[in-house]
Design a protein that fits this description.
Blueprint (H helix, E strand, L loop, with lengths): L2 H47 L7 E3 L3 E4 L5 E4 L2 H14 L11 E2 L3 E5 L4 E4 L2 H11 L12 E3 L3 E4 L5 E4 L2 H14 L8 E2 L3 E5 L4 E4 L2 H10 L3
Antiparallel strand pairs: 1-5, 2-3, 2-4, 5-6, 7-11, 8-9, 8-10, 11-12
Length: 221
């Protein structure tokens, strides 16, 4: 075989391998950039309202988030939230800044450690909730403590109760009661016992508000 051909082939092979590693490095860098943006965005959303695995409340989905370009996305879970952020990242050139991270669109609903359903309608209420929950401890980011299993029963201050079978029905029932009872500031409650699913897939039956409080606080570890 021609030695000059062998030498040329060897050089080309080295160039090809180098190009492959460079391409892989760029792909890894791109993946890291988008995942960092997703994690920081989800953490920022949790920090807006003191929600998440190491905080004092849990978000009630669906929620709507708004991006820096004015577009919005309604999502039904943390998984959908992350997917929506990834899609926006790639659709907008893959070079967003921290200022481009999405924000919560009000109103939102959260559940506190006692099983109260709290509706947040104004930036002032959102700030008060965030301050009540305090600074983020060191712990898992971008994760819920648990998700509620349906059907659920909601009890209102006038002793009426509503059974809801989905996240959408949950939010609609609370909003409808608030609109029918303007000026009423008492929070509705979840009716116990209820069932929740932890992040590892474990289903837990919760018998009373104390067990829910303990479950929420255990997540902080």
């Amino acid at each position: 075989m021609n030695r000059s051909f062998i030498k040329s082939f060897g050089v080309l092979a080295i160039i090809a391998i180098a190009a492959l590693f460079t391409s892989c490095d760029k792909a890894d860098e791109s993946f890291t950039s988008v995942e960092n943006f997703v994690l920081q965005s989800v953490t920022g959303i949790e920090d807006e309202c003191g929600a998440g695995r190491d905080r004092c409340v849990e978000l009630v989905f669906p929620i709507t988030v708004e991006f820096s370009d004015g577009t919005t996305a309604e999502v039904n879970s943390y998984l959908e939230l992350k997917q929506a952020i990834r899609l926006w990242f790639h659709t907008n050139g893959g070079h967003p800044s921290p200022q481009d991270r999405p924000k919560l669109v009000l109103p939102i609903q959260v559940i506190n450690e006692a099983g109260e359903v709290i509706t947040i309608e104004t930036p002032e209420e959102l700030k008060a909730l965030r301050e009540e929950c305090g600074p983020r401890p060191h712990g898992p980011q971008g994760e819920p403590c648990f998700t509620l299993n349906f059907p659920l029963t909601i009890s209102f201050v006038d002793s009426t109760e509503v059974v809801v079978n989905s996240r959408e029905e949950f939010k609609a029932a609370v909003q409808a009661w608030r609109e029918a009872n303007p000026g009423q500031h008492a929070h509705p409650h979840l009716v116990f016992p209820l069932s929740v699913t932890l992040t590892d897939g474990t289903i837990v039956d919760v018998e009373n508000p104390m067990e829910l409080r303990d479950l929420k606080r255990d997540c902080r570890g």
